[in-house]
Design a protein that fits this description.
The chain has 254 residues and is α/β, with parallel strands linked by helices. The chain has a single domain (3-248), classed as Rossmann fold (3-Layer(aba) Sandwich). It is built from eight helices and seven strands, in the order E-H-E-H-E-H-E-H-E-H-E-H-H-H-E. A seven-stranded parallel sheet has the order 3-2-1-4-5-6-7, with helices on both faces. The relative contact order is 0.15. The model has no long low-confidence stretch (mean pLDDT 97). Bound molecules: NADP nicotinamide-adenine-dinucleotide phosphate. NADP nicotinamide-adenine-dinucleotide phosphate (NAP) is lined by residues 16-17, 19-23, 41-43, 46, 68-70, 95-98, 118, 145, 147, 190, 192-193, 195-198. NADP nicotinamide-adenine-dinucleotide phosphate is lined by residues 16-17, 19-23, 41-43, 46, 68-70, 95-98, 118, 145, 147, 190, 192-193, 195-198.
Length: 254
């Protein structure tokens, strides 16, 4: 096969959570593979720093736009700003995330709402805003970052597990409904990846060893491991791939 199919030259990619560890790795990979990239999350200063870092490495065009994924009044202006700047959107990655470590019987409504709004509701309404643009262009690729916890649960991370299961089904539903417009929708389901989000959990007494003992290879992954799958799914190498849930689980789900 033509290995250049893995490149994304001329495409415009949005990475939500693009200043986070996994999101930044994905944004940098896309930029290095030829795409113009928009990174977004809530804090402009983090985005500016991430954009400078990526541009210094790839020499590509990276636009940092602050936006809260769960505040739906910000969705349309955000998409309009991207369209004004680039005139098209080919790739959408949802790599924002929220979680609380709390037993189900102690969970408060605001915690439930926060996790569901950031992990499910916000990504749904953003994709809904962008799908007609992709349809008009003749297609696109949407990639949702779910988790192995959408498939197999961990105690005290109940709302997170439920939200990530919803992301898996959201991926299936979008793929079925938008496939006729050549919009491919896939998800990546990582187990533990070293990041700001995961390290506090892994540093709790006994957790790291307990989780590691469930892997086949005795180690967890890095953000670049997620980016490698995200590049495949965004590229023309995956032109016929949709509705897939790609585990990065090191054998934890086996
Ligand atoms: N690390 C893991 O082990 C692991 C495993 C499985 C799945 N995941 C998933 O992978 C994704 C990325 O996680 P990560 O490990 O890279 O975590 P991270 O470094 O904490 O990144 C999360 C990103 O989400 C952004 N964000 C949070 N709330 C937001 C909001 N309301 N609106 C817009 N952006 C928001 C954060 O930026 P601001 O705070 O500035 O908004 C940050 O850029 C998440 O969906 C997570 O659930 C991670």
């Amino acid at each position: 096969m033509d290995i250049n199919k893995y490149r994304v030259d001329g495409k415009v990619a949005i990475v939500i959570g693009g200043a986070g560890d996994i999101g930044k790795a994905i944004a940098e990979t896309y930029s290095g593979a030829g795409a113009d990239v928009v990174i977004s999350s809530r804090k402009q200063e983090n985005l500016d720093a991430a954009a400078e870092e990526i541009k210094a490495k790839t020499g590509g065009k990276v636009l940092p736009i602050a936006s809260h994924i769960a505040k739906l009044d910000q969705t349309k202006p955000f998409v309009e700003q991207v369209m004004k700047e680039f005139g098209r959107i080919d790739i959408l990655v949802n790599s924002s995330g929220a979680s609380f470590m709390v037993p189900l019987t102690e969970m408060e409504e605001w915690q439930w709402d926060s996790v569901m709004n950031v992990n499910v509701k916000g990504p749904f309404f953003l994709a809904k805003e962008i799908a007609p643009i992709m349809k008009e262009q003749g297609g696109g690729s949407i990639i949702n970052i779910t988790s192995y916890m959408g498939i197999r649960v961990e105690e005290s991370l109940g709302a997170y597990c439920i939200s990530k299961a919803a992301v898996i089904h959201m991926t299936h539903v979008m793929a079925k409904e938008w496939g006729r417009w050549n919009i491919r929708v896939n998800a990546i389901a990582p187990a533990w990846v070293h990041s700001r989000l995961s390290d506090p959990f892994l540093q709790m007494p006994g957790v790291n060893d307990r989780m590691l003992s469930q892997t086949a290879i005795g180690r967890f992954g890095e953000p670049d491991d997620v980016a490698a799958i995200a590049l495949y799914l965004a590229s023309d190498a995956a032109a016929n791939q949709t509705a897939g849930i790609f585990p990065l689980d090191y054998g934890m789900l086996t």
